[in-house]
Amino acid sequence: MAEVISLMDIDDDNHSLKSNNNLRKATPWVEKYRPQSLSDVAAHRDIIDTIDRLTSENRLPHLLLYGPPGTGKTSTILAVARKLYGSQMHNLVLELNASDERGIDVVRQQIQDFASTQSFSFGAKASVKLVLLDEADAMTKDAQFALRRVIEKYTKSTRFALICNHVNKIIPALQSRCTRFRFAPLDAINVSERLKHVIQAERLDVPECGLKALVRLSNGDMRKALNILQSTHMASQQITEEAVYLCTGNPLPKDIEQISHWLLNESFAVSFRRISEMKTRKGLALVDIVREVTMFVFKIKMQSGVRVQLINDLADIEYRLSFGCNDKLQLGSLISTFTRARSALVAAAK
Questions:
Q1: What is the CATH number of domain 188-248?
Q2: What is the pTM of this model?
């Protein structure tokens, strides 16, 4: 007897398909375009090739991957797990975020329980299990010492991969048991190539000036670059340089040039008034202005001694602003810093 398909069944299937499509559209591009294999990772080919070879030869050691955010640490180890375990990854990999579960209890319970149970590969390429600890530098010292003992005890059946931003917060006893790889900030060309791939896949309108702005503001952080790209796309049809800077709240390069001109040429009162007006009109943060002005100082010709002193003074202002010091006082300090620099340059010219 033929199966009867009701209109309700068809509607449900269509609804399910629409839901999946909507879910995919709502997925953050950081996850949607996360590399699925080691060959897809954007940069650090020397590190990737070494880990790939160790994985292929089934000689993977305990790993410690460290470096700034958005440089491919988590993507690399997840790609390793997919290569090792395939469809059995969810059975043979324990993934924990140490910033959420950072105490000694998680080591004694979750990690030790997982490491001590016998593994069955069911067709996976490796029989050893993998414990992935993201943000391991957030773990307490007691938890790290307990983890050291667990690594020693279960090293034959389990591999441990620690990921962190600050390697100095990992105790030496753990560092010595792992093979360390440092992930440096990505080069501009690596960020640009990956962004072009996403732009093409999403069919976005991004002129060259917009792409350069994305790369510049990312500072080698691929996650930040993708988040800026997605948020700018949500706010603007065309992702121009101005749209990128407006979306992120950063001052435009032409605004920084104008502010620097005032600082180098105008009086204290005029500079204070004009910079204050621009801050209010464009909604700029003084800390962003100071950071960009510092980068501008690096680019212009200036006597080396004056440049070093000026950059040190700007760093002090940025430090004070990070602790919530009064904006007006620090703006005055910024202008005074350039006034002293101007005086020093005039004295050196004589």
A1: 1.10.8.60
A2: 0.79
